[in-house]
């Protein structure tokens, strides 16, 4: 199956300051807490997913795992175990997603995120407003599709 990003608009403004590789996250242009919570509300409602401690991020990150027995993607599509996404704590607001390499490149070119310097994951910058929330949500859904299909 070929995955590619939708009509990804170019992210406006300068890039946020990023640190990493461990921890890898955003240090400026932090998403408002209520926008982060709206994103998390949507993320945790994805079918056959559950919240569990992250296996790859800082201890206060909220991670999504795909339930065993659901989906047919190979293990290498996940960050570790069945974890495919995590949202960093409020002071950061960015998230890491499992996505195909072609999508990683499109997202970087459109200035919405950066590949993790060590792991096979995409850092997506936290949405600064409701319009950006819709773009980030589309990327989360693409990640979900990536880990649920062969």
From TrEMBL:
Residues 81-143 form the Luciferase domain. It comes from the Bacteria. Pfam families: Luciferase (PF17648). InterPro entries: Luciferase, Luciferase_dom. This is Luciferase domain-containing protein. It comes from Nocardioides furvisabuli.
